[in-house]
Input
Amino acid sequence: MKEWLDEVPWDAQGLIPVVTQDFASGRVLTLAWMNREALKKTVEAGEAVYWSRSRGKLWRKGEESGHVQKVREVRLDCDADAILLRVEQVGGIACHTGRESCFFRKLENGRWVTVDPVLKDPSLIYTK
Amino acid sequence: MKEWLDEVPWDAQGLIPVVTQDFASGRVLTLAWMNREALKKTVEAGEAVYWSRSRGKLWRKGEESGHVQKVREVRLDCDADAILLRVEQVGGIACHTGRESCFFRKLENGRWVTVDPVLKDPSLIYTK
Output
């Protein structure tokens, strides 16, 4: 029998884009990437683990900030090759800038305008 | 002055992943891709235009199905290189399978299970 991990349409780099959404507020928090191992660990641990393309390694969300994402639901799309993670965002902050969501800039009259507040100063989040 | 389109971190293929969310229900509908021209047209027309990677051409969402996505908001993320489109989904159906969202399969006990209903038979949507 085909394992559920084999049904994921991994791309040429072995990755898939992952949309992460807050289960309670419905806010889209991040777009990140997973490889097979990251997805396996995410499901096993019940907490989001991504593949950092810039650092070239697994990245347990919240490992430094404490802003862990507890997985409530994992979904797969029809064919556009993406995963949707619905999570409980610990601390209510997903972005390294201290904001709820990474999507805090909005297009207004031909300009990207920051429209969401910083909830916590990043220097107080990343204290190591 | 740098144009807003120049601030988008296009990848090596000139593309960016786009998360599209229903403005009213909050459902994540699709993950698709845009190039510069698609994003420009999306903003100008106020309706989502994507780049189809499989067909290698611009794709005006709803051009066949009538299920146009009226853009209410365009957001850019901090650095993970993605766009969030918040839309009014005409017909309440984003997926070519006749479902509200493309993310209709949920991981349950090691299996991808279809959990969302077909709202309209695709043969009644694609009549051309």
Observations:
- The longest strand of chain A covers residues 15-22.
- Chain A touches chain B at residues 3-4, 7, 17, 19, 21, 26, 28, 30-32, 43, 73-82, 84, 95-97, 99, 102-107, 110-112 (CB under 8 Å).
- The mean pLDDT of chain A is 94.
